[in-house]
Amino acid sequence: MKRVFIIVLDSFGIGAMPDSENYGDIGVNTLASVSASPLFKADNLKKLGLFNIDGVTCGEKEASPAAAHFRLKELSKGKDTTIGHWEIAGIVSQKPLPTYPDGFPEEVIKEFSQKTGRGVLCNKPYSGTEVIKDYGDEHIRTGDLIVYTSADSVFQIAAHEEHVPLEELYRYCRIARQMLVGEHGVGRVIARPFTTVDGEYKRTSNRHDYSLVPPRKTMLDVISESGLDTIAVGKIYDIFVGKGITQHVFTTGNTDGMEKTLAFARTDFNGVCFVNLVDFDMLYGHRNNVDGYAAAIAEFDTWLGDLLPELKEEDMLIITADHGCDPGYTVSTDHSREYVPLLIWGKNISPVNGGTKDGFCSIGKTVCDYLGVDGDIDGQSLLSEIINEQ
C-alpha cells in the first residue's frame, strides 16, 4: 500500500523567477525574508535539505540532506493559488486568468447587483483587512455587499455575519461564480465573512472559495479513476471544485490542517493526501508580517518532527508551494512570482540534489508514476531520479 502526502506551504517561495519583473516583483524572496526573523526555526526542513536547494543562499546547508531536493520553475502564466495548484496537479496554463486593477466592469457589477438584489461597495483592489475597516460601517448601514479584488484573479465578497447570514453570502458567491466565466472567468470567487470583536471588524474562519472548474483532467482525476484514494485537506477541495476527490475535510487554519493531516497519517489509505496550509499566505504574506510568517514556519517545522515517524515503508512525503508572497516586500501585499521548493522524502527515496526543474507539474506526474497510474497530464516524472531500487 502506497501513500503520498503532498503538503503545500501556501506562498512559501524561494526566490524571484527570471520573469518576475514582468509581474511587478523585483528582488522578491519569501524564504530569505522570513528566515531573517528571530522567530524563524526550521531544523527539520534543514535536515531534509531546504537550504541545499539550488539558488537558496540563506540558512545553513545540511551536510547530508535526508530528502531529494529541487527548485521548481513555474511554467504557467500567473502567480496565483488556482494556477499554482492546477500546475502541481498537471495542468500548465498558457493564458493568465483575468485580473482587474481598476475594478470590475460596470456591466459585471450591474448584473451581480440585479441578481442578488443588493448594492455593491468598493469594487477595486484592496487589502482584505483594510476593506472591512473602510467599508464595514456603510455595509451595515445600507446592506450593500463589499466587492473587491487584488492583483490575483479573484472576485471577493465581504459581509458581516450578523447582517448577512453565511448561507446567504455563499449563495451570492455561487451567483457570481455562475456569472464569471469566459472573458471574466476569474480563478476564484471568495466569500469573506467578518464580524465585530471588541468594537473592531475581524474576518472569520468561514471563508469559502468557489473556483473555476479545471479545464481538463488533473492528477486527482486520474488517480481516483484508477480506484485509489484522493484525500483533500483544507482548501484543496475548493480549488479543484471537488473534481477527482474521494474524501475531504475543511480546516480553520494551519494548526487544524496539520492535526487533520496527522490523523490521516495514522489511518490506512491507498493513494494521495493533498494538503494546503493557507495561513502562511492569508495571515502573514498578504499582511507583510515577517515575524508571523516565521513563527508559522517554526510551528510547521515542529509538527513535521511529529509527522515523519508516522510515515510507513512505502510512503512518500512531498513538501512544496504554489507561488510566493514575500512578507518583506513592502512595495506590495500581493503574491510574488517565485521559484518554489520541492522536498521529497521517503524510506525508498534517494536524497539527490536535483537542481532546477521546469514545471510544478513534475509533482503530479511523479505522484502518478509512483502510484502506478498512467495519467495524461502535463509534466515530466522525477521518479527515476529519486527512487532507491535497493
The level of helicity is 25-40%
The description of the largest β-sheet is: 8 strands, mixed
Note the beta-strand portion.
15-25%
Helix-strand string:
EHHEHHEHEEHEEEHEHEHEHHEEEHH
CATH class membership of the largest domain: Alpha Beta
- Rounded mean pLDDT is 96
Count up the helices.
Answer: 13
The helix/strand class is alpha/beta
CATH architectural group of the largest domain: 3-Layer(aba) Sandwich
CATH superfamily of the largest domain, called what?
Alkaline Phosphatase, subunit A
* Radius of gyration computed on alpha carbons: 20 Å
CATH topology of the largest domain: Alkaline Phosphatase, subunit A
Low-confidence region ranges: none
In whole angstroms, the N-to-C terminal distance is 18 Å
Number of self-contained structural domains? 2
Which descriptor suits the 3D outline?
globular
**Lateral strand order in the biggest sheet:** 10-9-11-1-12-13-2-14
Structural account:
This protein is an alpha/beta fold and 390 residues long. It has two domains: 3-97 and 214-386, Alkaline Phosphatase, subunit A (3-Layer(aba) Sandwich), CATH 3.40.720.10; 106-211, Alpha-Beta Plaits (2-Layer Sandwich). Helices cover 32% and strands 21% of the residues. The strands form two sheets. The protein has an eight-stranded mixed sheet, with helices on both faces. Strands 3, 4, 5, 6, 7 and 8 form a six-stranded mixed sheet that branches. Helix 4 (106-116) crosses helix 6.
